[in-house]
Amino acid sequence: GEDVEQSLFLSVREGDSSVINCTYTDSSSTYLYWYKQEPGAGLQLLTYIFSNMDMKQDQRLTVLLNKKDKHLSLRIADTQTGDSAIYFCAETAKLQFGAGTQVVVTP
Amino acid sequence: NAGVTQTPKFQVLKTGQSMTLQCAQDMNHNSMYWYRQDPGMGLRLIYYSASEGTTDKGEVPNGYNVSRLNKREFSLRLESAAPSQTSVYFCASSGTAENSPLHFGNGTRLTVT
């Protein structure tokens, strides 16, 4: 949905960090989510952040939330070939997803 | 540990034909959803059901009907398929808690010719 926007493509070298950005419009969302979709499969939850938090870290994943700017980012440290997938951000207020960012990891 | 199961995985229809996409979840979730995924447009919500016996329209409900048959099952029906309904359809479910994420099935790839 157009209320949640993401860039469509990101290319990253193996071992580097990936940063995927997302902007949303509905400030009433209590939670914001990141999902991962591998080819031919449904979406799987990667991580989420509560709207009153600025940052959440979960192993190689770091989520940053700037509530004032309605900006969410997902950083993947030490990106591996298995991280190649489409990543979606989603908000809870209107159950809306971004268009997805295709991440391609090159050796 | 099945989670959310969708059938069929693939379907080809001619314009005007009808079909029902089936979805079942075994996680005792109250809420169930149908989304369609199109290139460059992400997932768009077609219908959802917050609990057994209730259904509500999402962003793109035209051309579709749904039935929440019981707590486990939520079906999506196309009465008269159109080429614009060519898409990948995902069913999802979630629990009652506010931070409950959506659990997705593996999708049904539908082509309407």
Spell out the helices and strands of chain A N to C.
Answer: EEEEEEEEEEE
Q: Give a count of the beta strands of chain A, DSSP E runs of length 2 or more.
A: 11
Question: How would the global form of chain A be characterised?
Answer: globular
Mean pLDDT of chain B: 94
Strand content of chain B: over 45%
Give the proportion of residues in helices of chain B: under 10%
Oligomer: heterodimer
Main traits of this protein?
A: 107 residues; mainly beta; six-stranded mixed beta sheet; five-stranded antiparallel beta sheet; 11 strands; B: 113 residues; seven-stranded mixed beta sheet; four-stranded antiparallel beta sheet
Write the layout of secondary structure elements.
The complex is a heterodimer of chains A (107) and B (113).
Chain A: E1 4-6, E2 9-13, E3 18-24, E4 31-37, E5 43-50, E6 55-58, E7 61-66, E8 71-76, E9 85-91, E10 96-97, E11 101-106
Parallel strand pairs in A: 2-11
Antiparallel strand pairs in A: 1-3, 3-8, 4-5, 4-9, 6-7, 7-8, 9-10, 9-11
Chain B: E1 4-7, E2 10-13, E3 19-25, E4 31-38, E5 42-49, E6 56-57, E7 65-68, E8 74-78, E9 87-94, E10 103-104, E11 108-112
Parallel strand pairs in B: 2-11
Antiparallel strand pairs in B: 1-3, 3-8, 4-5, 4-9, 5-6, 7-8, 9-10, 9-11
Please explain how this structure is put together.
The complex is a heterodimer of chains A (107) and B (113). Chain A is mainly β and 107 residues long. Chain A is built from no helices and 11 strands. Chain A has strands at residues 4-6, 9-13, 18-24, 31-37, 43-50, 55-58, 61-66, 71-76, 85-91, 96-97, 101-106. In chain A, strands 2, 4, 5, 9, 10 and 11 form a 6-stranded mixed beta sheet that branches. In chain A, strand 4 and strand 5 form a beta hairpin. Chain A is globular and about 40 Å long. The termini of chain A are far apart. The mean pLDDT of chain A is 92. Chain B is mainly β and 113 residues long. In chain B, a hairpin with a 5-residue loop joins strand 7 (65-68) and strand 8 (74-78). Chain B is globular. In chain B, strands 2, 4, 5, 6, 9, 10 and 11 form a 7-stranded mixed beta sheet that branches. A 4-stranded antiparallel beta sheet of chain B has the order 1-3-8-7, with no helix packed on it. In chain B, 35% of the residues are buried. The model of chain B has no long low-confidence stretch (mean pLDDT 94). Chain B has no helices and 11 strands. The interface between A and B is medium-sized, with 25 and 23 residues.
